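Hi R.,

As promised on Friday, here is the backbone we talked about, encoded as structure tokens. Could you run it through your design pipeline when you get a chance and send me back a sequence?
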């Protein structure tokens, strides 16, 4: 297996972000792990409505990789929402880049 290319992200997340269902009282919920590159691709494509081609340039990866990252993120979020799981956001092979940098 080929090593992953380092992805450039602009969204600075300090530490781990955690989202859990309010209705879940159990402390030992199952969870899905969303990586920082998945979070960044979601933010840019879904929230900011940036085209995948532009996201690929910003993240320093191919457009097809952006598509695979988005598919993975969407499946994880759907699983968490449908099955009442926590969403933990952290990790991945990323480096932080200022929005002003190209």
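Update: got your reply. Pasting your designed sequence below so it's all in one thread:
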């Amino acid at each position: 297996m080929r090593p992953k290319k380092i992805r450039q992200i602009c969204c600075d997340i300090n530490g781990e972000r955690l989202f859990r269902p309010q209705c879940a009282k159990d402390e030992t919920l199952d969870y899905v792990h969303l990586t920082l590159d998945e979070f960044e691709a979601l933010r840019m494509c879904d929230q900011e409505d940036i085209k995948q081609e532009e996201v690929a340039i910003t993240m320093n990866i191919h457009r097809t990789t952006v598509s695979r990252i988005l598919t993975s993120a969407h499946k994880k979020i759907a699983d968490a929402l449908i099955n009442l799981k926590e969403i933990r956001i952290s990790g991945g092979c990323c480096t932080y880049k200022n929005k002003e940098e190209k």
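One thing I noticed while checking it: The chain is about 40% helix and 15% strand.

Thanks again,
M.
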